[in-house]
């Protein structure tokens, strides 16, 4: 098959995976925008939420955009390699290079504005707790969403069980949600045994425990992007020398 043929097959397989990943992300983005019962819908319902949180509500559009870009990249890479089209290969190289630069810039921004993210989460936490105290046990949508979240993540409230203190549920039952206690007996879930960790600390712990994996994945993606640019430019030059 030769070196040229091997590069073509590798380029086709790699971009086929990118194309499928783009389709999956695009599907998730569309689902997020269509699903009114998602966590984004819950964030919209939080009164007096920090203005910055409005940006999170656009995550569906972001996923759609990312999915569409990956679809285009995958298409250009596959067709450019198989049809030996230099224009497609060059366009593929440029797009991947722009994405790579944007990722590096994004990483720098995240590191620089990390303290600001902490302040934003603190503001969000305050509003979420206020929302729990006002609506949990009275608003069926809020109650169902929190129950589902706590069941899935095995956590209790945003910070801990005290988030439910003075909520309609706690006032009427003088108890805390069953998810806040390790005991399976609902009637025994009071403040003395409500020891289950809050959802935010649980989520933060999950990220901290998987920091190495996250960094490794990010570095792996960066390495694949560099490899894709090298292969596409190599094919571009080989095809150019053949046609010349």
TrEMBL record:
It is a multi-pass membrane protein. Disulfide bonds join 156-180. It is found in: Lysosome membrane; Membrane. The chain crosses the membrane at residues 12-32, 59-82, 89-113, 212-239. Signal peptide: none annotated. Keywords: Disulfide bond, Glycoprotein, Lysosome, Membrane, Transmembrane, Transmembrane helix. InterPro entries: Tetraspanin/Peripherin (IPR018499), Tetraspanin_animals (IPR000301), Tetraspanin_CS (IPR018503), Tetraspanin_EC2_sf (IPR008952). Its main location: membrane. It holds the Pfam family Tetraspanin. GO terms for cellular component: lysosomal membrane; plasma membrane. Belongs to the tetraspanin (TM4SF) family. Interacts with SLC19A2. Interacts with NTRK1/TRKA. Structural component of specialized membrane microdomains known as tetraspanin-enriched microdomains (TERMs), which act as platforms for receptor clustering and signaling. Participates thereby in diverse biological functions such as cell signal transduction, adhesion, migration and protein trafficking. Regulates neuronal differentiation in response to NGF by facilitating NGF-mediated activation of NTRK1/TRKA receptor tyrosine kinase and subsequent downstream signaling pathways. Plays a role in the inhibition of TNFalpha-induced apoptosis. This is Tetraspanin. It comes from Salvelinus namaycush (Lake trout). The lineage of its organism: Eukaryota, Metazoa, Chordata, Craniata, Vertebrata.
